[in-house]
């Protein structure tokens, strides 16, 4: 039984907390599936259960942790007599995964019988903060603080040798980013972005793949979808007007289709769900 399952809108390519939750296990009930999320860390706070991966069965109990990574085929089940309770946090983004890879948990997947008090505490803080999210108190900033604290605690508790090279960001990429951030409201094309940065279209594509692991076109799309989502949550502007605001001029239907592909729901559904959640979060307790 899920006591909490909170999902978050992806806002950038470098770092995202995708979701978090609390599961109160039902005896002999669990999940079997192929993981589609980038990385989801679980910590068991009460009870016990089993985790199966690559033909191996782990008997887990309070104080153990396990990590799910994209592509893994897993099965995990609460114990019959003492079903577990666990908290989980899902992360994505290039920077988040780089930090996570500094911990040996990415290689071991399951860690048992270790002192993880700090890790458990911060995961629980993430879930409880998400549950009582109050934007007017900057809980969104606090949530990011806790996630970085989690990544630090993982590396500190389960250290792993790593190398780090200071990236040399191409200044022309910065120009392209600035141009997109200033002009996403307009009907700009990749060619216009390349012209603004004084580079060829192919060079722009290669540098974006290098630094952001995406294309300029997809980056612009994500930028527009993010701003559209914020307009839907925080304003009462009609959808056709929001389409104009994020660069879909005279094409509200194309905007709605693109939005649905991105968020798996249409703009009206998104507004109904997330504007209500935002309203509830900002009500005084």
From TrEMBL:
It holds the Pfam family AraC_binding. Keywords: DNA-binding, Transcription, Transcription regulation. GO terms for molecular function: DNA-binding transcription factor activity; sequence-specific DNA binding. Residues 174-273 form the HTH araC/xylS-type domain. SUPFAM superfamilies: Homeodomain-like, Regulatory protein AraC. PANTHER family: ARAC-FAMILY TRANSCRIPTIONAL REGULATOR (PTHR43280), MMSAB OPERON REGULATORY PROTEIN (PTHR43280:SF30). This is AraC family transcriptional regulator. It comes from Staphylococcus piscifermentans.
């Amino acid at each position: 039984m899920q006591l909490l399952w909170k999902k978050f809108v992806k806002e950038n390519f470098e770092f995202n907390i995708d979701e978090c939750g609390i599961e109160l296990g039902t005896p002999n009930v669990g999940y079997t599936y192929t993981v589609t999320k980038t990385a989801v860390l679980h910590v068991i706070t009460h009870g016990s259960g089993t985790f199966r991966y690559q033909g191996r069965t782990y008997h887990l109990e309070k104080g153990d942790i396990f990590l799910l990574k994209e592509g893994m085929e897993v099965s995990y089940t609460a114990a019959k007599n003492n079903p577990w309770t666990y908290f989980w946090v899902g992360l994505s983004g290039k920077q988040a995964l780089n930090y996570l890879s500094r911990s040996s948990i990415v290689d071991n997947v399951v860690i048992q019988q270790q002192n993880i008090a700090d890790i458990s505490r911060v995961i629980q803080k993430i879930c409880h903060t998400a549950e009582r999210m109050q934007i007017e108190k900057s809980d969104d900033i606090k949530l990011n603080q806790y996630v970085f604290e989690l990544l630090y605690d993982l590396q500190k508790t389960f250290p792993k040798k790593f190398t780090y090279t200071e990236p040399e960001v191409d200044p022309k990429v910065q120009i392209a980013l600035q141009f997109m951030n200033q002009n996403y409201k307009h009907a700009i094309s990749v060619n216009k972005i390349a012209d603004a940065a004084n580079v060829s279209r192919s060079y722009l594509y290669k540098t974006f793949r290098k630094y952001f692991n995406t294309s300029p076109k997809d980056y612009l799309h994500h930028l527009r979808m993010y701003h559209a989502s914020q307009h839907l949550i925080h304003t009462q502007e009609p959808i056709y007007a929001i389409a104009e605001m994020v660069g879909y001029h005279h094409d509200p239907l194309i905007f709605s289709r693109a939005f649905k592909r991105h968020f798996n729901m249409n703009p009206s559904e998104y507004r109904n769900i997330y504007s209500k959640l935002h309203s509830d979060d900002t009500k005084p307790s």
